Amino acid sequence: MSASTGDLEVETPGSATPAAPPQRRQRHWAVGWLMVIVVAAIVSILLRLFVVQTFFVPTGSMYPTLQIGDRILVQKFGFSLQRGAIVVFDHPKGDAEGPLNEDLVKRIIGLPGETISSKGNTVYIDGKPLAEPWLPKGTPLGQQIRTQTIPKGEYFMMGDNRTDSYDSRHWGPIPGSTIIGRVFLIVWRHGHPVFLIP
């Protein structure tokens, strides 16, 4: 049985396609890399705007959980606003301390509709003492919390370094709409990369 070769291309000596000139190859190479860089830049911008963003911790108000100089990753999409979550949010309008365009990082302590107060070093939610496993035992509260009901859609924020944190005890609860995202990973500490879940 013989196979038909009618559909096959048969190369004959001298019929090979000549190689592209070096200048054209370089141009194709440059355009290819330019496209890769542009796509990578667009993806990076979209990720930063809508998904994940890196922030720098400039103060010790969240010590020891977050330390001065830490780099943190913040999830900006699909996160939950629950008690104990560490979040980054816009500078509160009622805060006269620090640059007004600087974002802040604190922990959610009180939720919308709850009544929050304090006595001694204990925070109370709706009259019941709040367990705070994220704090070292014996952490002093410092500035007391005046008894108040948190408005609908707002959150009471506090720093873990209670005696050195300017937070909702001073400028009140913040609107949930001002929360940028939730901290989910520490990636840099003491000049070295780390991977710590706060």
Keywords:
198 residues; Umud Fragment, subunit A; single chain; elongated; four-stranded antiparallel sheet; alpha+beta; disordered N terminus; 2 helices
Structure description:
The structure is a single chain. The chain has 198 residues and is an alpha+beta fold. It has one domain (53-196): Umud Fragment, subunit A, CATH 2.10.109.10. 17% of the residues lie in helices and 29% in strands. It is built from two helices and twelve strands, in the order αβββββββββαβββ. The chain has helices at residues 22-50, 168-171, and strands spanning 52-56, 71-75, 86-89, 104-110, 115-119, 122-125, 128-129, 148-149, 154-158, 174-175, 179-189, 192-196. The strands form two sheets. Strands 1, 2, 3, 4, 9, 10, 11 and 12 form an eight-stranded antiparallel β-sheet that branches. It has a four-stranded antiparallel β-sheet with strand order 7-6-5-8, with no helix packed on it. β5 (115-119) and β6 form a beta hairpin. The longest helix is centred in the N-terminal third of the chain and has 29 residues, at 22-50. The radius of gyration is 28 Å and the shape is elongated. The relative contact order is 0.18. The model is unreliable at 1-15 (pLDDT under 50).
